[in-house]
Amino acid sequence: MRPPPRSETAQATGASVLRRPVRWGILATGSVAHSFAEDLRLIPEDAELVAVGSRSAEAALRFAARHGIARAHGSWQDLAADPEVDVVYIATPHSAHHAAAALCLEAGKAVLCEKPLTLDLARARDLVTIARTRNVFLMEAMWTYVNPAVLRMRELIEDGAIGEIRSVHADFGIAVPYDATHRLHDPLQGGGALLDLGVYPVSFAHLLLGVPDTVSAWAHLTPQGVDDNTAVLLGYDSGAVAVLSCSLDTRTAQRASVNGTLGRVEFDRDFFHADGFVLHRQGREPEEIRLPESPGNGYTHEALEVTRCLRAGAVESPWVPLAGTLAVMASLDAVRARIGVHYPGEGNGAPQGRAQPTAGRPG
Description:
Elements: E1 22-27, H1 31-40, E2 47-53, H2 57-67, E3 71-73, H3 76-81, E4 87-90, H4 97-106, E5 110-114, H5 121-134, E6 138-141, H6 148-158, E7 165-173, H7 193-209, E8 214-221, E9 227-235, E10 241-247, E11 256-260, E12 263-267, E13 276-281, E14 287-290, H8 300-312, H9 322-339
Parallel strand pairs: 1-2, 1-4, 2-3, 4-5, 5-6, 7-10
Antiparallel strand pairs: 7-11, 8-9, 9-10, 11-12, 12-13, 13-14
Helix pairs in contact: 4-5, 5-9, 7-9
């Protein structure tokens, strides 16, 4: 797909340019971290996994042994200070994203941080400020935005294949047995369907329609005060709408459709990391468009995008721009305000401490 216009901050701005495999560190040792480590092995000419960091030395050593990593650090600080690391992938629960990413950015390390970037807009803005002040690369790991099928869809839409977009529909639900101590139900760990699952439909709508003019929402809340079944309606002055939902109560179809004045695009499953879609053009037979299935666990595209940016000396990605990440966080904040979900520490001024992680499972 044609690259989007680069913002001024996405241009090379004096950041060091890499002409060798990017040396990765992974912060945290949970299941997502394992999946990312496995995918880095699929692109050896572009990536080298050299270090892992955890709050537990034992966990770091086990992770390093499993993935053949040379250095295991028993603290986040030691990983951030490792001179052999170019970029750190943050794989903690999102309640700890701000603390972990800020630590690495302030140490001069490029950061790829799992979605959502932080718990709220204030913390996300703080990370962007740190990155821009220190001229260090930062990107949210929104793999949907660099997915080849999604990029192909954007190209077709930009070329007028379905006319003007009038509506976007997307859902993402999984069935999770209720457990008040599980991170998905724990407000201390940023629990709830919205931030873990709803971020995908909301980001998908933003990708296609931009910043909404109105935000409406309804949700059912658990006894712990987090959402487990949520509906979001984004409205645009153009007349377009986005109808979105997320759930921890039931596994939904995980489909998406983009509906325009001259046709529509349909993702029949897993729209957030799909390998194809069906294009319906007015007056034509449906066209099934399939791209090569993403290798491994699906993380290679975002790792390659980080590589491309670092080699170009860019401090942000044109595919996953920081302004877009902040806009999505603003919408998520607006949804939470309407459904009454609040997290500990919100509304007390500056973002919480950068040197120590917020509450959450060991990582």
